[in-house]
Amino acid sequence: MRRTVGASEQAGNAADLEVPSSGPEAGDFAELVRRHRRELHLLCYRLLGSFEEAEDHVQDVLLRAWRSREDFEGRSSVRTWLYRIATNACLDTLRRDARRAVPASPGPSAGLGPSVAGMPWLQPYPDHLLDELAADQPGPETVAVNRETMSLAFLATIQLLPPRQRAVAILRDVGGWSAAETAGLLDMTVPAVNSALQRARATLRDQWPGGRLEWAPAARSDPGQRRLLQTYIEAHEQADPEMLIAVLRHDIRLAISRVGEWRGRDDVAAALRGGMNSLGRWRVLPIPANGQPGVAGYVRRPGESVFVPFVLTLLRFDQGALVDVAAFEQPSLFARFGLPAALT
Prior knowledge:
The chain has helices spanning about 25-50, 50-65, 80-95, 125-135, 140-150, 150-160, 165-175, 180-185, 190-205, 225-235, 240-245, 265-275, and strands at about 1-5, 15-20, 250-255, 260-265, 280-290, 290-300, 310-320, 320-330. By secondary structure, the chain is α+β, with helices and mostly antiparallel strands. The longest helix has 25 residues, at about 25-50.
């Protein structure tokens, strides 16, 4: 007889991992799943940029770990062993997926980082799952690093790095692993790790000259940001693009993953006037994702009676204006955010 150790309901309905239903071995392994699943998911998400692919990889990592448990000789911690499996599984995916060819770097763009429009694999990450990890790893430094390196700007920028450089940067600068530990995880020498880290940091500096602090969204939304968020919601629900156009900054960027990008107030305004109401009526719910404000957009098309999931959008505000809109037309992600399947 077998039982299932699956992802938490908040993480979605990814394939479950099967382990024996009884015995101390099964109990120990179930405890490993509980202790390390969210941390491994975050590692895979940073490497891959995709919430759904990270979930699939964690399932695969835990299955590999279960099957190879007898080979684990205890020369490292269980956490290091799982990190090694997870990191190399993600690197295998990055190397063989032609879709993930490193995008051409456009250089810094008003401090916004690369566009999600050219990265069809990139997906947002629900804040409530990040909060789960923060609760298990208390401390202001951990919270700060998580905020800075979970922003959409950072996730998009790190996609510019080749796979091994990306892994080194995440393990060293995000995870806090030493050069020797990183070398052991990746089967590299310490000099090779240090060289890869230098190259990765140079690329990140090109995009963010001010360093890590520039990646992070505001630590807490202020009343002005909350008003702008409400304006964004009301403009859609009232079918009034002019209300939204009024709060756009002159260098606004609108990027829709897998669709395209518009830059500058005039071009974005034209896109809003031509397309915001073309699908039907909107209902919009606020959501926090990647440490920044966002919304979930439901659309009711002509002749239909309910609002159905359509787009998740992350927003960035600065000095009383909307400066960046990153939209993901991926209804499958709504369940990951704990959002309803429809609105009436």
